[in-house]
Amino acid sequence: IGIIKKVAYIFWRLYLSIFIFINTLRKSSNKNPCVFYGGALTGNNGGPLVKIKKLKKYFPEHTHNFNIVYLLSNNQYLNNISFNIIIKRKIPIILNQNGVFYPSWFKGNWRKENLKLSKIYHTADYVLWQSKFSKKASDKFLGKRLGLGEILYNAVDTEIFFPKEKLFNKEFIFLITGNIRANNNYRILVIIQALKNILKKNKYIYLNIAGFIEDKNHIINLIKKLNLEENINFIDEYSQINAPHIYR
Hints:
alpha/beta; 5-stranded parallel sheet; 10 strands; elongated
């Protein structure tokens, strides 16, 4: 299966090069935004797939005569040929910059992977960072960017959603989501451990876990071991929440 995926990935990138070359021979005359997502895939498992899927609902993809290219740092399929064609045609590039590669979770050549990201990062006309930490990590591992950009907290309206000053004696529901693999499931494990301590002060704290969780059985075993079944709930596309404290 791994070999098949690699071959499919290579062919998809080659196809994109030809596709982009043909569809950018004539510059778009449309003054309205016509977005092309650079061959990014859509789906229900994992943040990048879901993000593109939702974006297409609000900004339908134009595979012909597009005048904006919107790229995700973690759903990237353009090769150097495709990227250079877009630059030569002077089509504006917007980059949604999420994470970078670093040695504590990526076991491969993380420097090589960051080098690929850095070209897009510094060439893009505008960058959207998902947090202050994302911008700081990008500048550290990809090099400080001099171009335009802004921090957009995953399109969350921070005028409405913001941390409460006091959590004690009040019901509060945390949410953690994303594409969580076995090599970075510490993101959930540390929260579960912290939740155990917080519940000593306030028993009305709950945690909802959503997204693709690769090592779900390991996490469930830890939840049972710490007796947190009533305070943690898994959410997926096949289930709905009836109450935040119902554990599934």
